Write the structure tokens for this entry.
Amino acid sequence: MSDTKLTVLIVGGYGTFGGRLARLLAVEPGVKLLIAGRTIAKARAFCETHLAGGDAEPVVFDRDGDIIAALGAYDPDLVVDASGPFQDYPGDVYKLVRACIGGGVNYIDLADASAFVLGIGQFNDTARDHGCFALTGASSYPTLSAAVMRRLTEPMPRVETIAAGIAPSPHATLGKNVVIAGISYAGKPIELVYRGQPVTGYALAETRRATIAPPGVLPLKNRLFSLVDVPDNQLMLLQWHGLKAIWFGFSPGPDLPQRGFNIAAKLVRFRLLPSLKLFAPIIARLASWLRWGEDRSGMFVAIAGRGEDGKRTERTWHLIAEDDHGPFIPAMAVAAVVRRCLAGSPPEPGARPATGDVDLADYEALFERFSMRWGVHDEGPSTARQPLYRRLLGSAWDDLPAPIRALHDLDGTMVAEGRARVTRGTGFLARLAGRVIGFPEAGEDVPVKVTFTAEDGQETWHRSFGGQAFESMQFQGRGRSAYLVNERFGAITVGLALVVADGRLHLTVRRWSLFGVAMPMMLAPRSDAYEAVEDGRFNFHVDVSLPLAGHVAGYHGWLEPRPLTAAEEADIARGKTAFAQASG
């Protein structure tokens, strides 16, 4: 290392992930970057476009050439291999690793190829003897997933199941090497565990669905994930003895093209095709064309096991990245290691996966620089007894103002009263829809009474506007409606995301069904609904419209909870008695 700078040579420095890493490190004042690749013109153009004003130099580096001479000429303190695909390197896959260790140069890569990552240990003694580190797998799988696992398991001494999934934006450029990596193992066997027994899975041929939903954030739409061959499948088994199930997935984009890829992988599995490598150019081209859906990306890690009290509990970590910031995440482990080196706490010498060298706190410090939100949902026995909104909001619950929490902290029955302004649509379809749902007629300064009743994890909201009443039932969504509040108005059920922003609780429509049948979102009710605090009290704002019908109804006003009257308590007691007698 020079007197003032840590020289970092990034192989593939102008590529999809190497370029992101370079941009991450360019803001570190103690780093000098060597942007390396086979084409000096591309390296120079990248530096001029993305690193102007930074301490970055374009250099030529051919991993198939005389890399020992190149390392001697550039004299880096750290070499980062961000090129890949690590599943498909020709010849000596560890050629660069050997050269770095032999020259006493620290090495780290972004590999997620199982065989490559698991084989790095053969160089451990040599790296120690040369006083350098050689870290592999510094990517989302397995380093971020391992860091998340350590955080999730802090209150869970016994882990029984692990599942995780990465969902890049369908509009993101994955890069040729990412596509090639997936093609290389499509349909190939993967050793897994299911129900405590060793089983064989088949890469990209097996699927499951999941929703990524950090607490208080608009969730990603439910995504299809395909099984992938990543180092975690073996590393987690080595770390967590007694695992009963493990599954790691990837969701590259919309369901339809992914289903086609799943079918192709099954053809390889059943030996109807030898491999998908022959179709790499076609698949890469299709991947660049078939892009639709939300321009957001995310990741989840879910575990289940036994807490210190022996009771089964579940915890899930979620992350969502906006504004095309997701592709920075795979490069963050390397950035974290560089920052540790700059702080005088470099990794210990030796060769190993990077899973123990980066903590979630290191990642979180980098997440803060981007449009990223993350958090944990606890789904243990104690959480199941919490009120509906508190259960779904998790850690975001405490971000709500106290008057909003008070209206949703239900245990039994609560009554709140206030005043409201009610509007109604004037068109025929709008009037018909409003009548079917039971919305009140228009009026100014209308007296409002809402009776909230919580029972068996569900809530019934009985609303009365000037004596005109309508009712809905709210309950936690499951399956494709996971992490949503489902609100049922007669035959219509709407799945609402609970989004905490700017001191408000927004309720955003994400799914809907008619008579229990899922309906297309293009026909969904439109709702501008939020709860806020004004003048120290709870305020509600709801505007409902429908395609073709336009504005159907709106009600805006305030509520204050009050104690139940003796008559109301008596009515509730009589209702419970009658229900018990009917049930008996």
In short: The longest strand covers residues 443-455. The domain at 145-324 is CATH 3.30.360.10 (Dihydrodipicolinate Reductase; domain 2). The CA atoms of residues 535 and 558 lie 10 Å apart.
